[in-house]
Amino acid sequence: MRWIAFSLVAMVLGGLGWMGGDIVAQTGAARPAGTGNRVALINLSHVLKNYQKAVSFNNEMKDLISPLTQKQKGKAAQYEALMKEAQSKPDQREAYEKQIRNLKRELEDGANEAQVNISKKQDDMLIVLFKEIQEACQRVAMAQGYDLVLHYNDATTSQEYWSAMNIARKLQAGACMPLHYGPGVEITNEVVNALNSAFTRTAPGAATGGAPGAAPGVTTSGAGAARP
Description:
The protein has helices spanning 7-12, 20-27, 44-50, 52-88, 93-144, 158-161, 164-172, 188-202, and strands at 39-43, 148-152. α3 (44-50) runs parallel beside α8, α4 packs antiparallel against α5 and α5 (93-144) packs across α8 (188-202). Mean pLDDT is 75; it is low at 1-31 and 207-223. It has 8 helices and 2 strands; from the N terminus they run ααβαααβααα. It has a single domain (7-195), classed as Protein Binding, DinI Protein, Chain A. Strands 1-2 form a two-stranded parallel sheet. By secondary structure, it is mostly helical.
């Protein structure tokens, strides 16, 4: 069983972009001719690591998975011990084989049941998170006059950014990955702040706090991804 943790969540949250015509239709304001279009970026990996509801959900999933994992580990250890014991007593092989089959079935049933329950909870939360992130992006875009908001997924620390795994992912990525963007284009922090502001209003006990500072050796433009 593996946690989305939400790095798998970011893969699901695709297609987060909308054109300025929708914003104009919502606000009723027409853009003056010749002013050009404004484009912004958000790093979904950063959003999901810093949105308090996503962090809280991640912790809930860990608490849910931990006892199930321990239970399965216990049965797996019991299975291994039974296998060794059966090998040392060939005269009782038939009796041991029955116990081993039953225990193996219990392991498989437990894993399948846990996967169904966990997947359902994950899927439900993914929908909630996507909706809230998209709505926060719309609020920020409308407030700051952006016509197009695009998302990407990238490392949030210098160590992650320059890892072989991340570089290989960039080379294989099918979507457009920004290699450079100017100041003011990245609005990841604004989206995180909008999400956390709304979340803390509905969850007074939740901890507050903005996005972490830039990792050593990198700079950020508005927050989001680590940049060389």
